[in-house]
Amino acid sequence: MKKVVLIGGSGTIGTILQKGLKREFDVHSLDINVDENNDNAKKTDAKNFAELIDNIPSGTDVLVNLLSTGNAGSLVNISEMNNMVDVYFKASYNILKAAVELNIPKVVFASSNHVTDYYESGGKSKLGRKINVNDYPYSEGLYGVLKLAVENIGFAFSNQYPLSVINLRIGSVKLNEKKEIYKNIERNRHTWLSEVDTVTLFKDAIISDIEYGTFYGVSDNPDKPWCSDNAKEKLGFISKVNSIDIIN
């Protein structure tokens, strides 16, 4: 059974994955905020490299980078910029470096659809076709820029070390999804990544043998803005529950 460590595992996606992956993997969580009743969770600040190294369990097979500050806005003030750089880029660099030093063969990175949000409006592509991973990644804000930077530094690590790096450009994921999808139904009906599909996508990335790859994470929603064909072809990802299924 592969040992999978979710870094930032107390957030929305981490909560979904802790529950959804535990039948097939030995799942551990590292986060600044952890459930003290979870024996597989350990309070960890990934910005502190020494602390990160010390708290990653021995025998780990996969690190899953789910780090977030909760800010996905456009351009921010200097203080928030510094915080976002620390969390999204510096701590992500720490995770990649830790994988190399501890001989962990794979890092799965929860990137974002905001890497290419310049091409999308209201859940619809402005290109007249689905946005794909070959489109130049124009972002409208710092969040998308930093997510792209981590994708790129992951490529450098994968190129220079025996390390597999999988980037998943996640769509809209929320807990209590039936309630949440109605909050912004116009966009969500197109951009949703259901809980079931979130677990499936990350599982496919964890077990894949790809050295490096970037994929959009979106359910098979009507008129979805992003092309996920390569996720199906290379990871074997098949959407099981889409936004229409949730609404109905």
UniProtKB/TrEMBL annotation:
Residues annotated as domain NAD-dependent epimerase/dehydratase: 4-173
Swiss-Prot/TrEMBL keywords: Carbohydrate metabolism, NADP
Highest rank taxon of the organism: Bacteria
InterPro entries listed in its UniProt record: Epimerase_deHydtase, NAD(P)-bd_dom_sf
UniProt xrefs under Gene3D superfamilies: NAD(P)-binding Rossmann-like Domain (3.40.50.720)
Tagged with keyword Cell membrane: no
The protein's name in its UniProt record: NAD-dependent epimerase/dehydratase domain-containing protein
Classification of source organism: Bacteria, Bacillati, Bacillota, Bacilli, Bacillales
Encoding gene per record: ytbQ
